[in-house]
Structure formats: C-alpha cells, structure tokens
Amino acid sequence: MGVTGALILIVVVAMAVFAPRLAPYDPYTRVEVTPEDILAPPDAGHLLGRDDAGKDVLSQLIYGARVSLTVGFTASFMSMVIGTTVGLVAGYFGGRIGNVLMRSVDFLMVIPDLPLMLVIIAVMGRGLLNIILVIGLLGWTYTARLVRSQVLSVKERQFVLRARSIGASAARIMLHHIFPQVLPLVIAQAVLDISVAILAESTLAFLGLGDPTLISWGNMLNFAFERGMSRRAWWFLLPPGLAIVWVSLSLILIGNTLDEIVNPRLRTHHLFDPKRMIALVVRARPREEEVLAESG
Amino acid sequence: MERSNYILYKLGFALITLTAVLFFNFLLFRILPGDPVKLIIHSPRMTREAQDRIRATFGLDKPVWFDTERLREGDLLGAFDTQFTAYLRNLLRGDLGMSFATRRDVADLLAERVWRTVVLIFGGDVIAIVLGMALGLIAAWRRGTRLDAGFLLLALFTWALPTFFMGIVLVLLFGRGRLPVGGMVTPGLKPEDGLTYWMDVGKHLVLPTIAMAIVYTGEYILIMRSGVMEVLSEDYILTAKAKGLSTLRILRDHALKNAMLPMVTMIALTFGYTVGGAIQVETVFSWPGLGRLMYDAVQKRDYPVLQGSFLILAVSVILANLLADILYSVLDPRVKAE
User: Fold this and answer.
1) Contact A272/B142, CB-based, under 8 Å?
2) Chain B residues within an 8 Å CB radius of A137
3) Across-strand partners of A212?
4) What is the pLDDT of residues A205-215, one digit of tens each?
5) Residue of chain B with shortest Cα separation from A95
6) Which of A37, A86, B66, B87 is paired with B156 by a 20 to 30 Å CA distance?
7) Is the pLDDT assigned to residue B29 strictly greater than 50?
C-alpha cells in the first residue's frame, strides 16, 4: 500500500516540478477567446476542455499541483516542529509546564477547525502565507499528544536515566536521546498531516478564501462550482477534485503504512486465526515482560 | 479522583474554553484592518456628526479594554465602561449585532437557521455512526482478509475525499434525476401546506444527508476498527474463546461493548469536523443552514454574521465535548482526571 502511495505521489511531485514543460498552455497568461470557447467541452487541442474564461483546464490542473504541495509540505512541517517541541517539553518536564501545554492542546482540539480558519482568513486576508500559517499553527495538536505519550515512556528507559545521571542537560537529553526515539512516529504523522493540510487548503479555496493570485485546485473548484455547475461542465468540475483525492490518498497510504511499521500497538488479535493466534500469544509474552521491566 | 471531582474538572475546563473563545471572538474582529464604521457606511458624503453618532451607538467611541483616564478620576465603575464590557453585555442580552449585508438582527438569523443545520448533521452523523460501527467491527474481526482490506481502502478513500467534492459529484450524478439538488423547498410551497411541504423538505434533505454520511462513515470505520482490534488483543477475549463462546457472542458482548467507550469520545471529538463538513455540504446544496450562512457571509465580508456563526458553532462543539466527557464517566467508572 505504501509503495503504491509513493508511486502516486511521485507523479504529482513531477507534475508540480515540471509544470511549465508539461502544461500545453501557460494558465497565467491572458487568452483571446470567442464565446464558443467559454466552458467548451474537451477536444483534441484541450484534452480537458476549457474553463469559464476560455482557458485550458489541463494546464491549470498541472499548475495547481504546485500550490497544493507547497501548502501541504510547509504547513505540515510547521505543525511537526511545533507539535514535537510542545510534546517533548510537556512530556519531559511534566508538572505545571506540561499541564498548561496539554490543556492548551485540549483547547485547540475542541475548537472546530474549519469555522475557525474561515473567520481568521476572512479577517486577515487570503494570501498564500496567511493560509499556510493558519493551517500550520492549528494543526500541531495531534502530534503534540503523540510525542508526549511516547516521551513519557521513553524518559524512564535505562539509557535516558544513565544520560541524566552523568549530568547531561535536559535539552541534550531531549534532543539526542529522546527525539530520535519519537522521530519515526512523528514522520508517519507528518505525512498524514500533509494530506490534512492539502484538504484544508482546497476547502478554504472552494469556500472562496483561496489566494486569488494563484491557480490552485480549490480555486478551480470554486470557479467551477460558481459558474460551471449550471452547465454541468464535468470536465471543469471533476479533474481538480479527483486530483485532490489522488494526492491525499497517496499520502494517507504512505502515512498509514509507516504508522503500521513504526507503531508497536495492535499486533495481537485473539479472534481470527486460531493457528496464528497461538504463535502471537507466544510471541506477545516477552513483550509484556519487557514493558513491565521498563515501567518498573 | 472521585467522579464528581472529575465532572467538576471538566466543567471548569469547558468554562475556561468558553471564556477564551469569547475573548478570541472579540479580539479577532477588533484587529480588522481599517475603521469598522467605514465598513458599515458606504457613502463618503456622510457628515462627521452622523459618523460619530454611529460610533456611539456601537460603543466604538469608548476604549477597547480599560479606561485608565476615568480610573485616575476615581471612577472605578466607569473605568470598565469599554468596548469589551459592551460586547459582553450585548452577548448576555442575546444581541449579536446587525448583519452588514441584510440589515437583519444576527441572533434572529442564527435562530432561524440553526435547526436546519442540526437536522442535517444529526441525520448524516447517525447513519455514518451506525454504518461505520458495523463495518468497522466486521473489518477488525476479519482482520487481514480481503474484506478488511476493502473496508480499509474505502475508509481511507473517503478520508481523502473533500466533503464538498462528494457533494459536487452527487449533484452531477443526480442533477437530472428526481431528487432536488439545491435549496430547502420547492419555490411556491409554504409551511401552511402541511404534509406536502415537509415531504418536499425531506426530499431536499436526502442528497445532502447522503453526502455527509458517505464522508463520515469512513472515519468511523477507522475508529471502530482500531478500537475493536485493541479489544480483541486483550486477554479476556482469549478467555472467552477458551470458554467456548461463539464468535458472535464474543463480538457482541465483549468486543462491541468495550469498543463503544472510545467511540463516545471520538464522536464528540470529531463533532468539530462534522460541523466543518456541514458548512461544505450546505454550500454545495444551497441548504439554508448556518454553514450556507457562513459561506454567504464570507463572500460579502459580513463580519457580524461571521462572528455570530463562529460563536454559536464553537460553543456547541465545546458543550458537545463536555457532554461526552460526562457520559463517558458514567459509562466507565474507572475514568478519572489526569
């Protein structure tokens, strides 16, 4: 599943990188159109037809990958950095600092995302930077929880206790000893966050809050919905939506596979296959002892 | 910690959250670029006096947080006569201001529309929960089979699917069918028409509800699947199996019951997403609820309406979470605060 996802993602990344070479037309230049060109269905010159301004849909679709991937990667990276830092500090120090940090995580989790993003972007303006900032600054809560719960168990392990006993500083322990242990989980989560960010960007754009100077899949869907719906212009409506599904599905497949590899939970199952079940129980036993030894 | 303490703790958290939302809502709409009065007045020919009068009616001539000058004069009560206290006072009276675009009272607008959104969310969410729990249970039980892989792929696919796009696809598919794809009722029908009217409204609800249900079923499949899988790895399942209980009984009496607990929390936690989904679905199907109201307000930069809708949505999600926490502590006596 992960390999399929990676292959799909490579196609999209290639689309974004080589957009100027791949796209048959430049979607950012003005075109002279006749009335027949408006929302013209697909033909040999325009494989996905034309939009409400007579522009080639396929070219816009290819260029749109740039915005989605930019927003997805930068916003997710922001969330990853903030979430990991908060999780490390909250988990390692615990006490009052940890409590305050985790309560602010709870607070952000309970506020409905989309309405919050809508009002902030509506007030602050719909530039690309604002969109990235809002998505990145609101999306770190799950990572913080994940990291904290991992840190809580890792920080009692032998190698951390040893490092502490020889006088390593808190920052050093967190960075050199605990961080490498939580990194795989964080990366799996960050990959999933990219898809969440891409979906958030396209939803905002669809609702009329995308960066108006850029061509993105969400912006295309907004135009298509506002102007192409009555003409049932499927060639304008479906491709950008399918592109969003395509790229976020690939990221979810990759993230899910990574998660299954690095996440130690959910390995045993007592109900399905009796033969495998015995093997699993036998194999599960040392793990339980290990857990006991570590916690004690 | 005792259960009553736990509930008090959760209540306190909800109160703090509500207060923070109130502050945020006040602050966000104060940092709007430009003079708020200019947003209301479009005519540049309005006299200074008239402008000042509008400022006075909205309390915009007062300081934002705190009046230090009046405090220096010894007027302690007057020092709190500010924009913030005016905002709180209006809120307590249920006054959410007036819409820029329609000149209507925002509280009235919200009251008129909130039930339409509740119906949509309730219908979509209940279908999604029931379907998601059933499919998730089966997927976890038959873990590793083709059936499980199929359900998992379906769930991941709907996760990748933007809610509004699901709506658009349904409109394209059914646009020429018998089911209406937009609005709440066929123009011409009135509530006085009785059953015909409500039947018509129900027909208009079908596609938006299906759109919501499809998108959120996947999410619940994933939650239920991992919940049941965790339960199935517990030793008491092995014991039950050893006692010779049938698979059906183990699934029903042990797996389902124990996996229900995390489900309650997840339904509340994902309620925020569901609200977001309703905004998108209402936009696509022109269903005149809170979501469509927000969409229209965004297009017209109708800030009082945006502020009011955000407040009501945030407050309902916070209350739903509080309710889930209380319910959870009743269902699971082991629960206690960290």
Assistant:
1) yes
2) none
3) none
4) 999 898 888 88
5) B338
6) A86
7) yes
